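Structure ticket #2291
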Amino acid sequence: MFQQAAAAVQFAKTGEFSRDTVQNIARELAKRPFRTVPTPIPESIKNLTYDQYRAIRYRPEKAIWADEAVPYRMQMFHRGFYYSEPVEIALVEGDKATHLAYDPEQFTLDNRFEFNLPLEDIGYAGLRLHTPLNKPNVWDELVVFQGASYFRSLGRDQVYGLSARGLALKTGAAEGEEFPVFKAFWVEKPSNLANSIVVHALLDSKSVTGAYRFTIRPGVNTVMDVQATLFPRVNLTKVGLAPGTSMYYFSLNGREQIDDFRPEVHDSDGLLMVNGRGERLWRPLSNPASLQISAFVDTSPIGFGLIQRNRNYAQYQDLEAHYEKRPTLWVEPLGDWGRGAVVLTEIPTNAEIHDNIVAFWQPAEPIVAGSEYSYSYRLTWGVEPRLQPGEVRVQATRSGRADVASATPRRLFVVDYNIPVPSDEKPGSLPTARLFSSAGTTRNLVVRENPTNNGYRVSFEFDPQEETLSELRLELHFDDQRPAETWLYRWTAR
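Resolution: structure written out below.
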């Protein structure tokens, strides 16, 4: 019989709980210098391999609320491998929180491996929530909180892809990135007929603490309303709010160094922004030769996100990864976020196993030490946000050398636009294209009908003329004033 040893619980303690509890803990924690409490991991699981860690499985019948008529169940992750730091968890019912202690009886171990699970209370490494997302009697995984402040979710009929984070600090900075950690979670027990579940989280790092409240609603698109309050220990000058982290390896644009049977490999293929003026901007992602950071200055953004736009299996040809089923992550500020910029970081990668894309909102002014900074936003995991009726969007970007006979530094770009809703009437005349480049020259700008996609194809040549970087901008203008996405692109010499 398992005999639980007493554990030193710092945050998710048994006791009274209210909506202010996590904020109060974060506020007091920020008044003290950052410190890490040594949490040694037992020798028996200290050096687990990837396969050994995967052999530790949670027993579904032990899931929280498994024997109750509520529409959600919760399982926990075991410590080990990359996830050695403990995470505290408490269950909330009414105004009472109850600490959830580690129990080895909740887990099974594949008998191919010869090591023992700890008997003492070592805490957990994270949690995941299940609900009948796709079928009434199947408990599908809905959301995972595991690793630093990372979490991920998905919509109906999708598979996991990109992740979100609670906060980004110093991303791409020369001094190295700082990774805040969700130290503790409080999960509210849902009612029998609930269409949502609420998770509270405490964030901590050297520079800042934070209190988060996630209201999660599953569906075709899974929606999370996030309320956050930051308590900075230092002035936050390189801070990213509502960050998303994804993978882009290659697509039809940028295959020069690729040796792969698949046409495209990515969790996301573009950054979509709707700025404060209502302009819809599309920036295809790239796998650059060197680190690239782009900032799109804005005031009061309507939304932004990392989008998986291409939903056709034929464009990926991967029977295992199913990139066509990866979710889009759309960020919608709730309230006025003021001045700042959507920042996109693109990191070189030579494999699809690395997340090399980060996008977030960076406020124009530093978040001052000792202040309390509250903000709210909505995350939508699923398909990308709906267009206005008749709106024209970028469907695909392709590029290659501009001379079919021989090598040349000149590049040919082909941008396909379409009207995604077939019932929307197509204009009677071709649009006018306007093309801008910050360096180099462009020529042979051509707009033509594309009968294969209910849209248009725009092509042009770009000559860098000894330049190593150029920002390109392509606009379509229609006689009937219908909206069209603006295509943005950063060209760099490899």
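Closing remark: Residues 1-6 have pLDDT under 50 and may be disordered.
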